[in-house]
Amino acid sequence: MTIYLADDDEDDRIFFRDAFSDIPSDSEISEFTNGVALLKALHDASELPDVIFLDLNMPLMDGFECLADIRDIKKFSKIPVIIYSTSFHKKEVERLQEMGATKYLKKPSSFNQLKTLLNKSLQDVKALQSSKKDTSEQSFLVE
């Protein structure tokens, strides 16, 4: 599974990467520090990622703008996008769901909780890919 992670916080990217290394999966993670770099990588990619984890608060292009661009470009529109952020406002979560985010994953404070949430998110993405089900059948908010 190919995973793209866009997050400007280096510590959060390390935390994410370390959690994934503890999850049994055949995953490759590419990391980006902002939405501009993520979109450039998507445009340049010979093969699109299986899932994108997207932080909201980033320089140059935030997660809202990046998600809107991803959903506006036909060849990217079906890539599952999981919002991965410490920001948690009910109206923002609702807006992101309306914009086409697949899930909203609130960044946890514990490493074990992060592993559990990432593992669950990957299982959901794999289920979507294998069944081609609509994402509306799954819980949007993952805490």
TrEMBL record:
Which InterPro entries does this one have? CheY-like_superfamily, Sig_transdc_resp-reg_receiver, TCS_response_regulator
From which source organism is this entry?
A: Costertonia aggregata
Biological process annotations from GO? phosphorelay signal transduction system
What keywords would UniProt list here?
Phosphoprotein
Source domain of life is Bacteria
Positions of the Response regulatory domain: 2-122
**Taxonomic classification:** Bacteria, Pseudomonadati, Bacteroidota, Flavobacteriia, Flavobacteriales
PANTHER family, from UniProt? Answer: RESPONSE REGULATOR RCP1, RESPONSE REGULATOR RCP1-RELATED
Q: Does the keyword Phosphoprotein apply?
A: yes
| List of residues that carry 4-aspartylphosphate | 55
Protein name, as recorded? Response regulator
